[in-house]
Amino acid sequence: MSIKQSIKNMDSFTHVRGESVYVDDINIKQGTFHGVVFDSPKAHGKIKHIDYSKAEALEGVERIFTYKDIPGANQIGGIIPDEPLFAEDEVHFWGMPIALIVAKSEFIARKARALIEIDIEELPVITTAKEAKAKGSFINAPRSFSLGDSKKAFAACAYVFKGETFSNGQEHLYIETQGAYAEPQENGNIKITSSTQGPTAVQKTIAQVLGVAMHKIEVDVTRLGGGFGGKEDQATPWAVMAALASYHLNQSVKLILNRHDDLRMTGKRHPYESSYKIGLSKDLKILAYEAEFLQNSGAAADLSPAIAERTLFHATNSYYVPNVKTTVISCKTNLPPNTAFRGFGGPQGMFVIESAIARAASEIGVSSRQIQEVNLLDENDTFSYGQIAKKVEAKNTWNSAKSIFNLETLERNVKEFNEANSTFKKGLALMPITFGISFTNTPMNHARALVHVYLDGSIGISTAAVEMGQGVNTKMMQIASDVFSVPIEKIKIETTNTTRVANTSPSAASSTADLNGKATLMACNTLLERLVKVASEDLNVSVEDIKLKAEFVYINEKKSELSWTDLVSKTMLKRVALTENAHYATPEIHFDKTKEKGHPFAYHVYGTAIITTTVDCTRGTYEFDSVKIVHDYGKSMSEGIDLGQVEGALAQGIGWMTMEEIAYNDEGRLLSNALSTYKIPDIFSVPKYVEVIPVETDGNDMAILKSKAVGEPPLMYGIGAYFALQNAIKAFNTKHQLKFHAPMTPEKVLMSLYEK
Ligand code: LUZ
Ligand code: MOS
């Protein structure tokens, strides 16, 4: 237990010394070439002609690769094969890769890129989901979930409201941009170091594009400087390009996108245009809810269908609604393919029902809190997708937040402040969250761990987990340290490598620690059993009497002479295996897409946040005074790491809802294409005070050591920031017509304050 509380993120030691190795820090081989991507300067059109001659003639340019150089398939689509690596005769988004320039230096490759001449016959550009819907431009068929009979239920409602919402995209802004380094090995094998959340996806796609077997491709990942979903699918093309060039040149090739290229060429969180209809009884029970979600998917499927599905899973957030009908449509537009981003469509769905509740509250003349409170999910309630809610903490976190943080006082303070001040107004909102844990695609819920105990008693662990700052390596170390009762220093987490752990799911869906942790736990337990058996033979006592503690074997709680290291070498001398490979697949989960019913999630994570803001009504600027959260960690195995995840996710969620504004012009060109025009929360704009209290709970056995997944759920607390701002605006301007159009930037706040 002591380890659980006191553990630090083991990566912090190399981080603070600047010693952590990212792709750009690798010692490259002599003769390494550098790649720069030539991308489309138009969002939609037919390529009439490209003249590479001037670029090719530039001193230091080795070769320019196009689709014609692809020996296998010019195809990188995951869920749907609809995305070429390089454009052939048409371009579908501004920033779409057309060619890879390979030169002696990145500087030369960049210079060469400016010399390429391209002639494009422009075609009509679609930038919004609504436009795409009107023109029948879709990625795939719509999906719908339903429960009860919403049509009938609306007829019995005392109140029915309809409306529309918009939530914008979000740039991942991982500090480490996309990149890869490819090194040719003997016999045509290639080793790729990639900044990817999905090493297997990279391996599989390279094999497909090169037309070679997967075993020829080794993908290695030490760590990422952030992923946030942006490297679940979209780390792949750059690794494939580096591999393609390396394949042809038989030389190492490094390809790192600079920030401008990364911003322009990669997809982001999906913007959603949605409409809702909500029906309530006299006593504020939500009896019926309908929503249509138009997802702006961009120019290719990428992960959009899976993200769309998660929007439906989370459309009713933490509420029990007996009659539901939700539909999501993935709309094909001429933007870069939008992709996974922390929450994976869930936040977009939750924003809509929170908007519907705010609207209903405002029309009925109650506070949103009153509606939220009477509709919170209870034990054995049914989700619209058929799963029965178990071990529900919705009311527990809500009521705990109310009492621990003294909501009455907080609300009274806001009211008194607003009565006493005319140019500053405060607003407060509560935000409950419920998030399902598991890949919604059931077959993806598995992982493996390969554990070696070395002769000297040190331990090496390989899993499918990718460390991206979330602290998963530290959690894996804790598990092994706990099982073997050895200090953390004896354990090393190896790089994530496809030759050691194969056929893996990406590190995503908040499930990395659960899946890989359970596999690690299984492998360690099997090894422990073997070691204990050897100890029992050696000491001539029964296995039940043996325990490992603090690097020694204990017999009936009494320390023996046999140390951990001696035990390991004795095990080796007996020719007993000190290596174990374990496979974990989440039990119990299933989902039937033909019925849209099942039990897709191992469990849910719950929580409630209370957010307070102060708006400067002269300027439209605002600050978040405090965010007070009661969060469901289960029984946290690493309190510091988990708290860091909650704080980071909260800041990211608030950023999405309030200040991060992605802008494309009508021609599909990204306008927010630099950090001067795209603003993310910095130290001055995060809440001034954040407090996170764990809810009292037993945890869940489906979670690793009962410690629940923590990566994504807390992002959605940030949605409360939108409604806190809206409440502050209402306190200043009673004429304000509620709008649900995120992000709520200071410009929008200012206009709302003075709208008549
Ligand atoms: N990725 C994925 C995810 O492939 N499937 C999921 O269900 C998911 N959920 C959250 C984040 N990434
Ligand atoms: Mo994800 S949004 O890569 O968990």
Key structural traits:
single chain; 756 residues; alpha+beta; Aldehyde Oxidoreductase, domain 3; Aldehyde Oxidoreductase, domain 4; 3 domains; eight-stranded mixed β-sheet; six-stranded mixed β-sheet; 20 helices; 25% strand; globular; binds pteridine-2,4(1H,3H)-dione; binds dioxothiomolybdenum(VI) ion
What does this structure look like?
GO terms for molecular function: 2 iron, 2 sulfur cluster binding; iron ion binding; oxidoreductase activity. Belongs to the xanthine dehydrogenase family. This is Molybdopterin-dependent oxidoreductase. InterPro entries: Ald_Oxase/Xan_DH_a/b, Ald_Oxase/Xan_DH_a/b_sf, Ald_Oxase/xanthine_DH-like, AldOxase/xan_DH_MoCoBD1, AldOxase/xan_DH_MoCoBD2, AldOxase/xan_DH_Mopterin-bd_sf. Its cofactor is FAD; Mo-molybdopterin cytosine dinucleotide; Mo-molybdopterin; [2Fe-2S] cluster. A hairpin with a 5-residue loop joins strand 27 (about 605-615) and strand 28 (about 620-630). With about 750 residues, this protein is α+β, with helices and mostly antiparallel strands. Helix 15 packs parallel to helix 16 (about 510-540). The mean pLDDT is about 95. Helix content is about 30%, strand content about 25%. The chain is built from 20 helices and 30 strands. It has an 8-stranded mixed β-sheet with strand order 3-5-1-12-9-10-11-20, sandwiched between helices. The protein has a 6-stranded mixed β-sheet with strand order 7-15-14-13-8-30. The protein has a 4-stranded mixed β-sheet with strand order 16-27-28-29, sandwiched between helices. The protein has 3 domains: about 30-125 and about 180-255, Aldehyde Oxidoreductase, domain 3 (Alpha-Beta Complex), CATH 3.90.1170; about 270-440 and about 595-755, Aldehyde oxidase/xanthine dehydrogenase, molybdopterin binding domain (Aldehyde Oxidoreductase, domain 4), CATH 3.30.365; about 445-585, Aldehyde Oxidoreductase, domain 4. It binds pteridine-2,4(1H,3H)-dione and dioxothiomolybdenum(VI) ion. Dioxothiomolybdenum(VI) ion binds near residues 197, 229, 508 and 712. Pteridine-2,4(1H,3H)-dione binds near residues 232, 340, 344, 441 and 509.
